[in-house]
Amino acid sequence: MRARDLACDFPTVTVDTPVYDAARLLAEQDLPGLIVVDGRGLPVTILPGTQVLRLAVPGYCQDDPALARVVDEAHADRFLHALAGRTVREALPAQPRELPITAPDATVLELAALMARTHSPLVAVVSDGALLGAVTLQALLDRAVAA
């Protein structure tokens, strides 16, 4: 099985998309991440859902999880409100990583190696300068387990 066989249409965002909108898209479509594209629609990076959380969760709670316990439940439930007015650009890591993109003829093992190496839950499939879709970790594992 090749990347082209596992790829599906996948939503994209830009670096200027409000990150709260990206979080809503992740939640509504049960996605592991989003493809961030440039003005031509080509992938520039992958935004894993965990990066959205990193932006929304206060640094003191990330540094010392015990401090998260002192926040009352009503405020804790609304932690995503910290994303208001912020963009996807702010959720991206400061140091860009290897871009998880592949050609349509990549094998399942090549996809798995790329996901593992880049710590990405999805891989963008690009051919002839156009985004064809993405292969998610779930689709890859479903295929690998079935084999």
UniProtKB/TrEMBL annotation:
The keyword Lipoprotein does not apply. The keyword Secreted does not apply. Gene3D superfamilies: CBS-domain. SUPFAM superfamilies: CBS-domain pair. Residues 1-65 form the CBS domain. Coiled coil: none annotated. Keywords: CBS domain. This is CBS domain-containing protein. The lineage of its organism: Bacteria, Bacillati, Actinomycetota, Actinomycetes, Streptosporangiales.
